[in-house]
Design brief:
- This is DNA-binding PadR family transcriptional regulator.
- Pfam families: PadR, Vir_act_alpha_C.
- The protein is built from seven helices and three strands; from the N terminus they run αβααββαααα.
- The chain is mostly helical.
- It has two domains: 83 residues, Arc Repressor Mutant, subunit A; 86 residues.
- The N and C termini lie far apart (57 Å).
Length: 187
């Protein structure tokens, strides 16, 4: 299996810097908190955890003080792992790359019926409305967890970004739909 050379290492180190976690918990946390801007599969998480342990950036213990009695392995960040995370956090982020298939389809819209595009836009509007709701729910959940002694201010900020991005994409789709309908009426 090819070693993951992407950012998985830093995603996991960042999560372990908050608290010791199992691979399963890391995956669930990623699905709930980061899915609007970052995805990792079990096929990335577990090999990355093994690499982190091999590099001395994390340690693992099964059924340890944080274990749940089911034999799950709990991972914790080491001092070296914190240094590696800190070093990466200081590096300039890569330029973001946007990939929305709907934008390609709208771009080539003269090659299909306006009803097809309107249907795609209606679906896109609904998805983005749902995503805004999910981000707002995530922010509410994070505010409740903050009371348990973990500072989720920065996670809250990423969810807030999701609210703004998905709201903007929904607004764009509403406006695009209006323009397509007006174009069809003028023909």
């Amino acid at each position: 299996m090819k070693e993951n050379t992407g950012k998985s290492k830093y995603v996991i180190l960042g999560m372990l810097a908050r608290m010791p976690l199992t691979g399963y918990t890391i995956k669930k946390w990623l699905e709930n908190e980061y899915s609007h801007f970052w995805q990792e599969s079990y096929g990335q998480i577990y090999p990355t955890l093994k690499v982190l342990v091999a590099q001395g950036l994390a340690v693992c213990s099964d059924k340890g003080e944080h274990g749940n009695g089911r034999g799950q392995i709990v991972y914790s960040i080491t001092d070296e792992g914190r240094k590696e995370l800190s070093k990466w956090l200081r590096e300039k982020p890569e330029i973001e790359k946007l990939r929305y298939e709907i934008l390609l389809k709208i771009s080539f819209g003269e090659n299909t019926e306006s009803e097809v595009l309107i249907g795609h836009l209606d679906d896109f509007i609904r998805r983005n409305e749902e995503l805004v709701k999910e981000m707002k729910d995530c922010m509410e959940n994070l505010s409740q967890l903050t009371g348990e002694g973990i500072d989720f201010t920065y996670s809250h900020l990423t969810a807030l970004c999701g609210v703004h991005v998905y709201s903007a994409m929904k607004d764009w789709a509403v406006e695009a739909k209006k323009i397509i309908i007006e174009k069809g009426e003028s023909l």
